[in-house]
Write a structure and sequence with these properties.
- The structure is a single chain.
- By secondary structure, this protein is α/β, with parallel strands linked by helices.
- Helices cover 41% and strands 24% of the residues.
Length: 358
């Protein structure tokens, strides 16, 4: 009897000890979780304050340039500094995404896109450069830029996502053409392309920025872009692009061979295939150096889809190119020229195969 009593006592003590250990473990876990949440909240608050202040500083610099009358060398230096500040702020956002919500990431990215757009527009207005284009098969008409201070100031006060209509179009309204701009026409320029179809466009140099609106069944090959590549309303096109920032809107059936130093962004897009940048020409290495792009940093596998915010499930709107040979651009160029630029159009009773997506 005495032995049974001792056994029961030991069992009760063991259960009590186990209960106390479980309770202590629970309290420790809760304490650690609260600590983590506290650190995370502090990180989010610090990020928000820092990001907001740096955004205000960049906006103020852009506004100061509107009101001043600095000579061109000073303007060029100021715009170069602003570009570096925006790039640095983009890197800060990318490094902080691990503890930011998807909504916060999207909101901050929209602000960065707007700053980039406003900076490009302000640069073009204050430091106008000659635009190159084509008329018929050779030259394009230029449209005078209508940018003004009110439009830029208005954009600075919003988080607008699209570039304005203030650009003169470099290339527009082209169909079935092989269009090549060399370094003398491209370097440092803001290249703008609108309403083209079944064209092969080559930009051999280092543009400041590239904007594309309305392109179908086209191939665009471009050297390193110092700042941003922005495109909307593209359909069944192939791109080979190197840039600091890429944003693609309202487009479908696009294949992109990409080098991007920040996180690429797509929105309202579907069937986007992405591989590694592979355009090549004789001055490519020199253009990389002149553009300021880091050739060793390529984030082409890191794409933010603003229509797909689930962190655990891959977006169905884009994928990486796998088990597919890289395009031979020299062969593609020869085929394009040999077919009289009539890719995908009827020639008599024959239909030429559309190979713009290789």
């Amino acid at each position: 009897m005495e032995g049974d009593a001792e056994n029961r006592k030991d069992q009760v003590l063991e259960r009590l000890n186990k209960r106390n250990k479980d309770r202590q473990n629970y309290l420790d876990v809760q304490s650690e979780q609260r600590s983590k949440e506290s650190v995370q909240n502090e990180g989010v608050d610090y990020f928000s304050q820092t990001f907001r202040q740096r955004t205000i500083d960049i906006e103020q610099r852009l506004k100061d340039l509107q009101c001043g009358d600095a000579p061109s060398p000073d303007l060029a230096r100021n715009f170069a500094d602003i570009t570096l500040e925006i790039q640095d702020l983009q890197r800060y956002l990318t490094a902080s995404t691990m503890f930011l919500s998807d909504f916060k990431i999207k909101s901050c990215q929209n602000i960065l896109n707007t700053l980039t757009a406003v900076s490009d527009e302000t640069r073009q207005r204050l430091m106008p450069k000659k635009k190159f284009g084509f008329s018929g098969k050779k030259t394009a008409t230029k449209q005078k830029s209508s940018a003004n201070k009110d439009i830029v100031d208005s954009k600075l006060s919003k988080t607008a996502e699209k570039l304005g209509s203030n650009f003169s179009w470099t290339i527009e309204n082209r169909n079935n053409e092989h269009i090549v701009l060399d370094s003398s026409q491209v370097n440092g320029q803001d290249i703008t392309i609108s309403n083209i179809s079944h064209c092969l466009v080559e930009l051999q140099g280092h543009p400041g920025s590239v904007q594309v609106s309305k392109a179908s069944h086209c191939t665009l090959l471009c050297g390193p872009i110092s700042r941003s590549f922005f495109a909307e309303n593209m359909d069944e096109c192939t791109l080979s692009i190197a840039c600091q920032q890429l944003r693609l809107h309202s487009s479908g059936a696009i294949r992109i061979y990409l080098h991007v130093t920040c996180r690429a962004i797509i929105e309202d897009c579907k069937d986007i295939q992405i591989g590694e940048f592979n355009y090549d020409y004789s001055e490519l290495e020199a253009d990389y150096l002149a553009s300021g792009l880091n050739k060793s940093q390529n984030n082409y596998t890191d794409v933010a889809d603003f229509n797909w915010l689930s962190p655990d499930v891959h977006s169905p709107n884009w994928s990486l190119i796998k088990d597919h040979p890289d395009p031979n651009w020299n062969a593609w160029r020869r085929d394009f020229i040999a077919n009289n630029h009539n890719i995908g159009h009827k020639q008599g009773d024959n239909v030429v195969k559309d190979t713009s997506i290789i």
